[in-house]
Known about the structure:
The structure is a homotetramer of 330-residue chains.
Chain A: E1 3-4, E2 9-14, E3 20-26, H1 37-46, E4 62-66, E5 68-69, E6 72-73, E7 78-83, H2 105-111, H3 129-143, E8 147-155, H4 161-170, E9 177-184, H5 198-206, E10 212-217, H6 228-231, E11 250-251, E12 254-255, E13 260-266, E14 276-279, E15 286-289, H7 304-321
Antiparallel strand pairs in A: 1-2, 2-3, 3-7, 4-7, 5-6, 8-9, 9-13, 10-13, 11-12, 14-15
Amino acid sequence: MNQFGRMFRIMLFGESHGECVGVVIDGCPAGLTLSKKDFILDIKRRQPRLKGTTQRRETDEPLIQSGLWKQKTTGAPLLITIKNKDTRFEDYLPFRKIPRPGHADFAASKKYGGYNDTRGGGQFSGRLTAALVCAGVVAKKILAPVEIEASLLQAGGTTQIERAVQAAIREKDSIGGIIECRAKHLPVGLGEPFFDSVESQISHLVFSIPGVKGIEFGSGFSCSKMRGSECNDRIIDTEGKTATNHSGGINGGITNGNELLFRIAVKPPSSINKPQQTINLQTGEEAILSVKGRHDTCIALRTPVIVEAVTAIVLADFMLIEQKIPRVME
Amino acid sequence: MNQFGRMFRIMLFGESHGECVGVVIDGCPAGLTLSKKDFILDIKRRQPRLKGTTQRRETDEPLIQSGLWKQKTTGAPLLITIKNKDTRFEDYLPFRKIPRPGHADFAASKKYGGYNDTRGGGQFSGRLTAALVCAGVVAKKILAPVEIEASLLQAGGTTQIERAVQAAIREKDSIGGIIECRAKHLPVGLGEPFFDSVESQISHLVFSIPGVKGIEFGSGFSCSKMRGSECNDRIIDTEGKTATNHSGGINGGITNGNELLFRIAVKPPSSINKPQQTINLQTGEEAILSVKGRHDTCIALRTPVIVEAVTAIVLADFMLIEQKIPRVME
Amino acid sequence: MNQFGRMFRIMLFGESHGECVGVVIDGCPAGLTLSKKDFILDIKRRQPRLKGTTQRRETDEPLIQSGLWKQKTTGAPLLITIKNKDTRFEDYLPFRKIPRPGHADFAASKKYGGYNDTRGGGQFSGRLTAALVCAGVVAKKILAPVEIEASLLQAGGTTQIERAVQAAIREKDSIGGIIECRAKHLPVGLGEPFFDSVESQISHLVFSIPGVKGIEFGSGFSCSKMRGSECNDRIIDTEGKTATNHSGGINGGITNGNELLFRIAVKPPSSINKPQQTINLQTGEEAILSVKGRHDTCIALRTPVIVEAVTAIVLADFMLIEQKIPRVME
Amino acid sequence: MNQFGRMFRIMLFGESHGECVGVVIDGCPAGLTLSKKDFILDIKRRQPRLKGTTQRRETDEPLIQSGLWKQKTTGAPLLITIKNKDTRFEDYLPFRKIPRPGHADFAASKKYGGYNDTRGGGQFSGRLTAALVCAGVVAKKILAPVEIEASLLQAGGTTQIERAVQAAIREKDSIGGIIECRAKHLPVGLGEPFFDSVESQISHLVFSIPGVKGIEFGSGFSCSKMRGSECNDRIIDTEGKTATNHSGGINGGITNGNELLFRIAVKPPSSINKPQQTINLQTGEEAILSVKGRHDTCIALRTPVIVEAVTAIVLADFMLIEQKIPRVME
């Protein structure tokens, strides 16, 4: 179901090398000031610019085609589309027969009876995250003054990120990374113990970002090694401020007023130039595949802004549910 | 929203020291043979028996109060309740004023304006997982022959689990753990790239289990340190079988026919006898709290069957959506 | 899907002659004062008392088994059950083979592969509306000071209701009726043009009441015969008050501040003592059926309070969505 | 919530005189053959052509911008947009101040704090039904061989439709109508008793069509005047065929295998040239309004194909839920 949210709802569509990608945002409060320039910064942050990111060049101009009038949201659904321009889909045709290891080629072909769009991975593409970023821009605006910030902590297992990327490029290989996200100035009481805990909703959306394989809140996996007396965050004032933040700002699934904090693990992109062994599904014989086309060596370089976006989407939904954001903004 | 699922839906209710806990299951296929004895094993697995688990003793007999006739499901909603019998709620009364560090006391009191049931944590209690286990039993039955198995890999940071528990008990402290879950014999094609990936749905429910702070699929956080050439699972036959399983049986959010595999991190229980510093919300002064009552030293000992349950619930929903399970069973 | 609502959500369960009927209410604001005596009046209004209603006698005492503490809602789900006591299910056994004309016997048996509970119609019974009435009581309380009132306008095609019922009893037949419902003091702006118009949501729930075959808002079917100049309600003050109310208080799917008004058509109960022709599904031969057991001659006599209940449920959901009701009540 | 459906889901967007109207269809089975020419007939049926329909001229060419590849659906969401070309929004500017009687002007302005798009009614416009028709075309294709047919039974209270329209035009007034819809070849067992009865779901969507004020299934309001012995449809074969169809093909909320049958009441359009009395919201004084612009005298002339569309959308959803339509079509 390409939909998410209860009050602030998004519906995603589009393919990597089809006509466009985009999102419909339903439930955005009326009266929010919005224009194309709001999107520039975050869209730029998602674009490939650095070494280690794809050669594909898209202008990624978001078109707001409904729900906006005189630069104000109207309360009706916002349709935002981004055209695909730099498409070369002949690059991707053989993967139905010779599936890429680590990619959805095989599973998707089975699931959709071979009808899925294989051009650039079709729907199974990081390209769709451009639309998530757009929805995130809107969510961030209605969340203000909440601040959300994500950054790449390490890539290829090291904090020497640039060096790790260079090495992977040289070897025609790819690397993953770890991203941390923080949100400040959240009210106490967002989320519900069952089943819409803050962790539940954030992880739900985070795992829609291609390549994410793990998430931990606060001290996460390290908590499993701590004693309770160490892991429990001491409350130091009547606003609930705590001395440490092992819980990541969430107790019992709901925000406790401290910084929301989580980290995610991004795997290395599956498409690499380096020759890999796979299978020819028609003949059943082994095949050697060297993936041509334009790929990211380290998609994690571009992922932080997407993590911010999905976090903002989840939080905007919670804020509307808890009536912390009005239905008409001033 | 105490509800989850699209075709196989559950709604949870109850409190730790209220009258009962339970679940309504909506969308269970008609014709499934079901009786009380189906629940015995899994309910027993969740119960405290070992050292390091609470002294509270409940018979946990599930009452199936609707949706069943002549030991067959009818297609109507199943109401399953479990009475709370061994309740001592006076133990929990002071926590509104002096919140336990690491617990939802503070956040819940703010969220619900002080009206939340604080007896034993009320809704914020592991007690509700008894109802999840019941729903899991039903889900497992409709999933057969899919096999789901979870186990505790380590506690307190070590595989010497019993020893770690003993030490924590001695020190009136608590410890966490890491649980691994595997599901076999799944068809290819469950899940959707956006937003209901297998990872999204499983993590959504897993993070409803009290105390879970992290999840990783396949090699998870380790993937972030691998090269693509290492992380990509080589396909070795036309059924999609892979030589390794770094992906945890999921590509692009959908099952690839290999074993589904994930691990979760469980934090140490927040309620410990050891004195802790906290705050008196009325006076704003520091307070020392030594939590009385009956607590688990290591809740992770009891969590594996709950992880199996939520996994089964998610998979049953996917199987109905993908029409791999009929609406009337034979 | 036995669930309804976005913010104020209900999940229904139970069967006519099973153990109980009931409802889980999710999303009820915390802090609402609630006790058994709140239910007495509306439950009594639904009970058979008059001539023309069934001989079945139930005390219909609602048990609130979760979500309530110290007579205040806690913000957690409310489980409300009503035991079935006066059950005689042998009355209903033959209908799998010899389906009642006008009843769901045939269609339900096909749908559920013969596993559906046929005792008293199982889930296809007016008995479940007792649970709707309970949910309606809660909804009405959170809606105050909104007033909802439904009444039976005519039965058997006449306003001489008692006389029509007597005649039907004499002839061992049954009659239907028309019920009108009004809600006062609603704010402007509930509902949405697509797809959750006030008409959409109310009709959705109203058609869950067994026996309802039609609904019209405001002047309804009569509007189709009017000119626009006649049908348009003239606005007479800046609050939006109108001189007439052909629209039933709804324009473009949203409330306009005038009285919400609709009427529904209830068909005559299908179970009658009078012999009817039907078919024996096993032999394919014609059969004559005279339905024994205890039936309502005119179920519409008992339906108004149920109509009020579903209206209140819909309106409570809208009010929470539009933030006209807080999440914590004082 | 501009969304509807569980398995076959639609999300609507757009405004009357904005850039476009359209729909995202989520959950459409993969492998369905689809092209622009599939839409021609139904789009034409919705267009104004006859006397009594608006002068606005739109080509209404549907652009399928995602989810389709090589004229087959891919299983990914279908984005279908229709550009608005013949827009003249200056016609609509005064209605914020001087609301049209019978129109959503007043209620919408209050609801959205004055930010709603008032050009041509914005989202409160029959224009959006062009998108519903597109979704209906897709739904009809996956439903084949189910046949759905709607027609206008009467307009302005008479079957002499053309004459009634002419009279209304002459008087610068408008008229409503009654539309009947039938669906053939449905399987037994679609729908659920609570809360997604066939009546519930169809009425939910039907009341999203602007101007609909009533719906009745089978004999509907006439049932309220019948005896049970008359209203009960006699079953005449083991397939459940009935001699009459007072139930409209639905018992207990689920299809019984007979023709699905319902009628709806459409009110006269509120925008008329004839001068009407209303109020100036700024001054509080009475005002006389003669609505300029291009309007339908009898929108009911164009509504039948929209009724078919929403019926098809509901039925496609039910068919997927009941696994009567596969997830991949051949």
